[in-house]
Amino acid sequence: MLKTGAWCWILRCLRRLACLRIDILTTFTEMFPPVLGASILGRAAQKGILEFNLCDIRQYSENKHHNTDDYPFGGGAGMVMLAQPIYSCLDAVDPEHKARRILLSPRGRTLSPEVARELAKEEHLLFLCGHYEGIDERVNYAMDEDLSIGDYVLTGGELAAMVAIDCIARFIPGVLGSSESAETESFSDGLLEYPQYTRPAEFRGMKVPEVLLNGNHALIERWRRDRAIELTLSRRPELMEHVELNKKDIAFIQSIKKDEKAR
Question: Whole-model pTM?
């Protein structure tokens, strides 16, 4: 019978072997290889942690010209993506609807670390990239949810898909070089990230804070926490509503407010 330590080792190995399949339905497949094949995403694909499948919606159009859009009923500006090629593409790529199907759309919930963590637990994601003025509303019946990356408009969903994939991938075990990286970046605990420095210790008269050079890890962690709080209060104060504060955090915030009143 295997001991607890052996089971933990096996589970860690299985997590490393786990692969997230990501299907991307788009009319502009050429936009993706430079992004998906480079840096962290590229290395994760080489390790077998991520599997990317690009699907050209245009190839599934039954129109002799392979059109994927048409004029909107009722008139109006722009073109609307046809339902037929999208449905045919979905039928070919995900015939049993096993994937979590996501439409990149400003109507969706906004991408956040919490949403990314949730999606990173899936085994199969499918992203549909809209284009032109929009997508035939009937396509929504074949999708599971809408996802937005912010309150602004892009030419198409391709860039939004890249952002979402990169964000989600960072929460998958084995993708990042350090298991702590995703948990110490901005927003991981509700705060903006603390300032970072590297060599040299002084550059053009600008010195690295002494606390980062003294080797006292407890002081370094406190300094980083204080700077993260300070930056968040200054630049994104609305984020503080969701931050869990300890006694030292509260004391630091009170000292900031006291200094502000003294000015």
Answer: 0.86
